[in-house]
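Section 3.1: Structural characterization of target chains.
Under the original work plan, the team committed to producing a structural model for every single-chain target entering the pipeline before any wet-lab resources were allocated. The record below documents one such target. The sequence was received from the expression subgroup and is listed exactly as submitted; it comprises 366 residues.
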Amino acid sequence: MAQARNLAYQSNLLLQENRVAESKQLAVDAYNLNAKNNGPLQNADVYNALMFNYNNKINNNNQSLFHQMPVKAVTAYSDNLILTGDEGGTLALMQVNANGTIALSKLQLKEDIRLLCTNKTSKHVLAATATGNVFVLTVTDQNTLQLVQQFKVVGTPKAAAVFKDNYYIATTEGFMKWSYQSSQYVADGMWNRKDINHFTVSSSGKLWVANGNKIEQFAAWGDWSNIQKTYTLNAAITSVAVDVSETYLAIGAYNGTVWVSNIKAGTAPYSTALHLSSVDDVRFSELPSGKIQLATAGYDQTVKLLDVQSILGNKTEDVITLRGHTKWIYHITYLPQGNQLISVSEDAKVIVWYTSSEALYKALKN
């Protein structure tokens, strides 16, 4: 493992000297040596050597400057399509490829877009603005954005999620449910809670709702009198996620803490100040290798990638730090296949990242 890290270090030095071919070869050699010796799959030094060489190869085209205003929202629509929304109201449809993004079309909503959320069943995208206006859109066969419906919620939207054909939206004034009935979304309940920081919903309909420094777990929407479990941190909670299997829960806090637990096993959680300040988003994904990865994004302008089973088992996998944004990051999203991650920021950039050394190695070799 030490030899692989040394080769990666030498690769980075050669790239700084513009000895591109030699640097690339050492990065590839570092990856192969690490793999041969059964080193950690998530080796930060090897990842960085591959990433620096790959970004050099594509002239940093993984960083899109399509937007002119801070980009506050992103959602994956399909395997290679994403939507991004900015402070000026521009909603963009982008195609993600090996070299970054290509803008396909845009729609001007003329309001500060705060949230984007895709209903993968109906192929609808919810776009919520700071004033509480909600636009439901779809992508046409010609890759244009088409408005399906518009409605309004009370308060400023803070978080949104989808369960089956229902959209759940938390605002500064309450927690609302909109159900898809007779080809349109209709208001279908509101919980008068004004203190919700964030929430997430699982594939079975369970909800984890954050208020202050606590998260309360509920069996289903509307079952508010039955709190199944409470999790407490030492700082205000800013983001929460659960993986598809409902095995792992991740929490991000205002003080930079990232908390991860195997909630099925009930084992000791991983908790550390991973970011310098507020953790604005946390997301789980299964990688092509079968590993479960957690990505976290912070006000400190970085994205962190963690191998979940490794950090909970105190093993040697590294935490990978992704740097490229120059201002705070609002949101992140994985593409469905798990090999690429998208981040959006106050700096108006949309950045595409590979989520593993293996994916970077294949991209660099190709």
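The CA atoms of residues 169 and 302 lie 27 Å apart.
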